[in-house]
Amino acid sequence: MRIRTTARGRRARISVLAALLSVAVVVLAPTPAVASRTDSAGAAAICPPGGYPGQPGMRVKSPDSARVYLVDPDGYRRWIVSGYYFDLFSSWDGIRTIPDLHCMRAGADLMTAFGTEVMGSFLVKGHLTAHVYITDGPYRRWITSEETRKKYQFNAPIQVWDQNVLMHGYLPGPDWT
């Protein structure tokens, strides 16, 4: 036995089916990633998707960790590898504790690979140049001015390296501004 349906009945079924599909799409649609945590005051901290940029030059830490980060020129917090802090800074003064540090955009650790050895970053200059660089991974990044050194509080002694090691051992990276 065959059941006849009218055009009106088919349209009604199609409308119901379309409504069900749109609900399924809304329910299954991805939502932006939002991290939620409780801060030290007990309030929920909502992070914007992708995190927020930090202010370049800030040294920051969270209240529940001893790790210190430097905010780079692009606004990313970069962990200063333990044991190498004093190769960039001469004191602990000026470190800010940020309760929602987990919401700040995170970048790669601030470190240097020298051959097979991985170590922290250094302030260096070649023995034939006045330019001061920060080593950052495989790169040497020129610290463009004395104002930039002050902004980042790079006040540790500058290591003087053989010009060939500095210029040929590290790739030129973007300027540190």
Question: What is the spatial order of strands in the main beta sheet?
Answer: 12-9-10-11-13
Give the low-pLDDT segments: 14-40
Order of helices and strands: HEEEEEEEEEEEHEHE
**Could you say which structural class the secondary elements and strand pairing correspond to?**
alpha/beta
Biggest sheet character: 5 strands, mixed
Any idea what the radius of gyration is? 27 Å
E-strand count: 13
Could you give the distance between the termini? 81 Å
Report the principal-axis shape: elongated
Proportion in helices: 10-25%
Range of strand content:
15-25%
Mean pLDDT: 79
- Supply the number of helical segments: 3
What are the defining features of this structure?
alpha/beta, 177 residues, elongated, 3 helices, 5-stranded mixed sheet, 20% helix
Write the layout of secondary structure elements.
Elements: H1 7-28, E1 36-38, E2 44-46, E3 59-61, E4 69-71, E5 77-79, E6 95-97, E7 111-114, E8 117-120, E9 123-126, E10 133-136, E11 139-142, H2 146-151, E12 159-161, H3 163-169, E13 171-172
Parallel strand pairs: 3-6, 9-12, 11-13
Antiparallel strand pairs: 1-2, 3-4, 4-5, 7-8, 9-10, 10-11
